[in-house]
Design goal:
By secondary structure, the protein is mostly beta strands. Helices cover 0% and strands 51% of the residues. It has strands at 11-16, 23-27, 32-35, 41-43, 53-56, 62-66, 69-73, 77-80, 88-95, 98-103, 112-118, 123-131, 135-141, 146-151, 155-160, 167-170, 178-180, 187-191, 194-198.
Length: 199
Protein backbone atom coordinates (compact mmCIF):
# COMPACT_ATOMS: atom_id res chain seq x y z
CA UNK A 1 0.00 0.00 0.00
CA UNK A 2 1.19 3.50 -0.85
CA UNK A 3 0.18 6.47 1.26
CA UNK A 4 0.72 9.94 -0.16
CA UNK A 5 0.92 12.44 2.70
CA UNK A 6 1.27 16.08 1.74
CA UNK A 7 -1.90 17.97 2.66
CA UNK A 8 -2.46 20.03 5.80
CA UNK A 9 -6.28 19.69 5.66
CA UNK A 10 -8.76 16.88 4.82
CA UNK A 11 -8.90 15.85 1.15
CA UNK A 12 -12.17 16.60 -0.70
CA UNK A 13 -11.59 15.42 -4.26
CA UNK A 14 -9.30 13.02 -6.19
CA UNK A 15 -8.70 12.15 -9.85
CA UNK A 16 -6.28 10.02 -11.86
CA UNK A 17 -5.01 11.29 -15.19
CA UNK A 18 -6.04 9.29 -18.27
CA UNK A 19 -2.44 8.10 -18.78
CA UNK A 20 -2.33 6.85 -15.15
CA UNK A 21 0.85 8.85 -14.52
CA UNK A 22 -0.58 11.39 -12.09
CA UNK A 23 -2.97 11.57 -9.16
CA UNK A 24 -4.48 14.96 -8.39
CA UNK A 25 -5.91 15.84 -4.98
CA UNK A 26 -7.71 18.88 -3.59
CA UNK A 27 -8.01 19.58 0.13
CA UNK A 28 -10.60 21.51 2.12
CA UNK A 29 -8.19 24.44 2.62
CA UNK A 30 -7.70 24.82 -1.16
CA UNK A 31 -4.39 22.97 -1.49
CA UNK A 32 -4.14 21.28 -4.90
CA UNK A 33 -1.36 18.70 -5.35
CA UNK A 34 -0.24 16.50 -8.22
CA UNK A 35 1.44 13.21 -7.23
CA UNK A 36 3.69 11.29 -9.62
CA UNK A 37 3.70 7.42 -9.64
CA UNK A 38 6.29 7.36 -6.84
CA UNK A 39 4.15 9.60 -4.66
CA UNK A 40 6.27 12.73 -5.04
CA UNK A 41 3.99 15.75 -4.43
CA UNK A 42 4.03 18.86 -6.58
CA UNK A 43 1.65 21.73 -5.76
CA UNK A 44 -0.44 22.59 -8.81
CA UNK A 45 -1.08 26.18 -7.73
CA UNK A 46 -1.37 28.41 -4.71
CA UNK A 47 -4.33 27.36 -2.53
CA UNK A 48 -7.60 28.11 -4.30
CA UNK A 49 -10.64 29.80 -2.77
CA UNK A 50 -13.69 27.60 -2.21
CA UNK A 51 -12.21 24.59 -4.04
CA UNK A 52 -14.73 21.74 -4.43
CA UNK A 53 -13.55 19.52 -7.29
CA UNK A 54 -10.38 18.45 -9.10
CA UNK A 55 -9.91 16.45 -12.30
CA UNK A 56 -8.24 16.47 -15.69
CA UNK A 57 -9.09 17.78 -19.14
CA UNK A 58 -8.96 15.22 -21.97
CA UNK A 59 -5.58 16.71 -22.97
CA UNK A 60 -4.17 15.87 -19.52
CA UNK A 61 -4.16 19.31 -17.93
CA UNK A 62 -5.24 19.43 -14.26
CA UNK A 63 -8.58 21.17 -13.80
CA UNK A 64 -9.96 22.75 -10.61
CA UNK A 65 -13.51 23.89 -9.86
CA UNK A 66 -13.78 26.50 -7.13
CA UNK A 67 -15.59 29.65 -6.02
CA UNK A 68 -14.00 31.63 -8.86
CA UNK A 69 -14.92 29.21 -11.65
CA UNK A 70 -13.08 26.53 -13.59
CA UNK A 71 -9.33 26.77 -14.16
CA UNK A 72 -6.93 24.57 -16.16
CA UNK A 73 -3.26 24.42 -15.16
CA UNK A 74 -0.24 23.73 -17.40
CA UNK A 75 2.78 26.09 -17.27
CA UNK A 76 0.40 28.77 -16.04
CA UNK A 77 -3.36 28.86 -15.72
CA UNK A 78 -6.29 29.37 -18.06
CA UNK A 79 -9.79 30.34 -16.93
CA UNK A 80 -12.49 28.33 -18.71
CA UNK A 81 -16.03 29.42 -19.40
CA UNK A 82 -15.56 33.14 -18.83
CA UNK A 83 -15.50 35.36 -15.78
CA UNK A 84 -19.20 34.86 -14.90
CA UNK A 85 -18.77 31.16 -14.10
CA UNK A 86 -18.66 30.76 -10.30
CA UNK A 87 -18.92 28.05 -7.61
CA UNK A 88 -18.07 25.04 -9.78
CA UNK A 89 -19.01 21.94 -7.77
CA UNK A 90 -18.21 19.19 -10.32
CA UNK A 91 -17.25 18.59 -13.93
CA UNK A 92 -16.85 15.76 -16.49
CA UNK A 93 -15.73 15.46 -20.12
CA UNK A 94 -18.15 14.21 -22.76
CA UNK A 95 -15.33 14.31 -25.33
CA UNK A 96 -12.28 16.43 -26.19
CA UNK A 97 -14.47 19.43 -27.07
CA UNK A 98 -17.30 19.36 -24.51
CA UNK A 99 -17.47 19.46 -20.72
CA UNK A 100 -20.50 19.23 -18.44
CA UNK A 101 -20.23 21.55 -15.45
CA UNK A 102 -22.17 21.62 -12.19
CA UNK A 103 -22.57 24.89 -10.30
CA UNK A 104 -23.61 25.17 -6.66
CA UNK A 105 -22.41 23.64 -3.39
CA UNK A 106 -21.78 19.92 -3.00
CA UNK A 107 -22.96 19.71 0.61
CA UNK A 108 -25.64 22.35 1.05
CA UNK A 109 -28.58 23.79 -0.86
CA UNK A 110 -27.64 26.86 -2.89
CA UNK A 111 -28.88 28.03 -6.31
CA UNK A 112 -26.87 26.68 -9.22
CA UNK A 113 -26.95 25.40 -12.79
CA UNK A 114 -26.09 22.48 -15.04
CA UNK A 115 -24.01 23.77 -17.95
CA UNK A 116 -22.35 22.66 -21.19
CA UNK A 117 -18.91 24.16 -21.87
CA UNK A 118 -17.60 24.22 -25.44
CA UNK A 119 -13.81 23.85 -25.08
CA UNK A 120 -13.04 24.92 -28.64
CA UNK A 121 -14.83 28.26 -28.21
CA UNK A 122 -14.31 28.47 -24.42
CA UNK A 123 -17.90 29.48 -23.82
CA UNK A 124 -21.14 28.04 -22.51
CA UNK A 125 -23.59 26.35 -24.86
CA UNK A 126 -27.34 26.39 -24.53
CA UNK A 127 -29.31 25.18 -22.72
CA UNK A 128 -28.35 26.37 -19.25
CA UNK A 129 -30.46 24.35 -16.80
CA UNK A 130 -31.23 26.10 -13.50
CA UNK A 131 -31.13 24.07 -10.31
CA UNK A 132 -32.72 25.77 -7.28
CA UNK A 133 -30.58 23.81 -4.81
CA UNK A 134 -27.45 23.48 -6.95
CA UNK A 135 -25.67 20.59 -8.68
CA UNK A 136 -23.79 18.11 -6.47
CA UNK A 137 -22.43 15.52 -8.89
CA UNK A 138 -22.15 14.91 -12.64
CA UNK A 139 -21.26 11.84 -14.70
CA UNK A 140 -21.09 11.03 -18.41
CA UNK A 141 -21.45 8.08 -20.77
CA UNK A 142 -19.48 9.30 -23.81
CA UNK A 143 -20.55 6.61 -26.35
CA UNK A 144 -24.22 7.63 -26.01
CA UNK A 145 -23.42 11.29 -25.27
CA UNK A 146 -25.48 10.74 -22.14
CA UNK A 147 -25.00 12.90 -19.06
CA UNK A 148 -26.50 12.78 -15.58
CA UNK A 149 -26.43 15.09 -12.61
CA UNK A 150 -27.73 15.09 -9.06
CA UNK A 151 -29.07 18.20 -7.39
CA UNK A 152 -29.78 19.39 -3.86
CA UNK A 153 -33.52 18.89 -4.39
CA UNK A 154 -33.39 15.08 -4.11
CA UNK A 155 -33.42 14.45 -7.85
CA UNK A 156 -31.24 13.03 -10.59
CA UNK A 157 -31.56 14.14 -14.20
CA UNK A 158 -30.46 11.94 -17.12
CA UNK A 159 -30.10 13.45 -20.59
CA UNK A 160 -28.87 12.36 -24.00
CA UNK A 161 -27.62 15.75 -25.10
CA UNK A 162 -28.68 15.33 -28.74
CA UNK A 163 -32.31 15.06 -27.52
CA UNK A 164 -34.46 18.04 -26.44
CA UNK A 165 -35.53 16.86 -22.98
CA UNK A 166 -34.04 15.16 -19.94
CA UNK A 167 -35.65 12.64 -17.59
CA UNK A 168 -35.87 13.23 -13.85
CA UNK A 169 -35.77 10.60 -11.09
CA UNK A 170 -36.97 11.49 -7.59
CA UNK A 171 -34.86 10.30 -4.65
CA UNK A 172 -35.35 9.90 -0.91
CA UNK A 173 -32.18 11.94 -0.22
CA UNK A 174 -29.96 14.30 -2.20
CA UNK A 175 -27.14 12.28 -3.74
CA UNK A 176 -23.55 13.52 -3.35
CA UNK A 177 -22.24 11.10 -5.99
CA UNK A 178 -23.62 9.27 -9.04
CA UNK A 179 -22.20 6.97 -11.71
CA UNK A 180 -23.41 5.76 -15.12
CA UNK A 181 -22.86 2.11 -16.04
CA UNK A 182 -20.46 1.53 -19.00
CA UNK A 183 -23.37 0.21 -21.09
CA UNK A 184 -25.35 3.40 -20.46
CA UNK A 185 -28.45 1.53 -19.29
CA UNK A 186 -28.12 1.99 -15.54
CA UNK A 187 -26.94 4.56 -13.05
CA UNK A 188 -26.04 4.25 -9.39
CA UNK A 189 -26.61 6.90 -6.72
CA UNK A 190 -25.17 7.29 -3.23
CA UNK A 191 -28.10 7.83 -0.85
CA UNK A 192 -27.21 8.37 2.79
CA UNK A 193 -25.92 4.95 3.99
CA UNK A 194 -26.91 3.09 0.79
CA UNK A 195 -26.15 2.87 -2.92
CA UNK A 196 -29.10 2.32 -5.27
CA UNK A 197 -29.15 1.48 -8.96
CA UNK A 198 -31.77 2.67 -11.43
CA UNK A 199 -32.77 1.48 -14.89
Amino acid sequence: MLEFVAHTAPVLSLAFSADSCSLASLARNGEAILFDPAGYPQPITEPVTGGQWIGFLPNGWPLIGDANGLTAYCEGSARLGGSRLRNVSCCAAVDSTLLVVGVGQRHKAEPGEFLLLDLEKNRMRLPRISEAAGVRSVTVHPPNRMVAWSNGSRQIAVWEIHKPDHRTFNLTHSSPSIALHPEGKWFAAALDYAVRSYD
